[in-house]
Amino acid sequence: MKKNSFSIFSLWKKYKIFLYLNLTLILVLSMTLSLSAAGFGEGNSYPIDNPQQVTVKGTVTDAITGEALSGVNIVVPGTTIGTMSDASGNYSLAVPGSMSKLQFSFIGYVTQDVALADQTPVNVTLTSDVAQLS
User: Fold this and answer.
1) Which one of 4, 60, 66, 84 has the lowest number of neighbouring Cβ atoms within 10 Å?
2) Is 72 part of a structural domain of the chain?
3) Do 109 and 89 contact (CB within 8 A), yes or no?
4) More confident of the two residues 31 and 53
């Protein structure tokens, strides 16, 4: 005599194709939602492709000697976006719009804020801070 008992394995054998289809549908929908939240599907080719970002380049020099200053900190105030000038005093930084401003700071020099008004390149001359040096 054959027993009629409930078994998860019997259900699995009978309905596994439906389970696979449901899992596939859930996976596709979750990927679609996460990609649309990241910016795909809105005309952007990549989520990091931000048309409002502007690359700002320039040189930082000493106001008295005219020599290039290396290691100058350049940041967008209020953000974590920043860089340092290289050995030739040159820098390049992607900022979140042309209406931003940059802050230039270096030990022994006066910190300077420069507003970006569609100027390219942004060359800055820093003056020494006499009070800080003494």
Assistant:
1) 4
2) yes
3) no
4) 53
